[in-house]
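Okay, is this right?
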Amino acid sequence: MELYIYLFIISLVLTPVEPLLPEPRYGHSSTLVGTKLYFFGGLGSGSENNSLSTQTFFLDVSKPFRIDNPPWTIVQSPIPVGISQAQSFAGGNSKDQIFLYGGERKNPTNFSLIYDNIIYLFDTRTQSWNIPPIGVVPSLRRKMQIPVDNNGEAYLFGGQDEYNVFKDMNIFDSINLRWSLNISANDFTTPRQRSDYTATLLKN
């Protein structure tokens, strides 16, 4: 009997444990908070109905790792909707909250398309999602960039939805949780409408 117990223990020790791996994807969002690089959603390789991911996971970049086997951590709290082509950015008083805006969205239960413009907030301390009370939010769009300054203000220019390409500039105050229209689409000095661009915020 003891021999069987020893053999069982040895088999447990020698059996390799596969790490949790994120599903293959593209069109996801990512944001660095402290030493953790978070990834959200994306378009996976599943069927047309369920391929929009609700997954959240991160990589601690402060520790050495092999690029062919990164030590991913899967967050147990999923995004409330399946989402891709959205933008995520860090903000809040301590810059440890991540806001997820825009993108293509699907109901994770019945896989129907969602056209709301809700901003979702991920708290990196509690590893949980919620919907903050923000009020008026720019129309839902995707394929845009949202850089953030040191004061916690995020800048949204352009983007597109199913039928339109935009050229307005909206600013989001991530501390006081409110949007403001900085440059109207009717302003003749505004660059032409566009999406799929890049944006970089300089110190000056």
User: Anything to note?
Assistant: The longest helix spans residues 2-14. The chain has one domain: 24-62+70-183. Residues 65 and 126 are 25 Å apart (CA to CA).
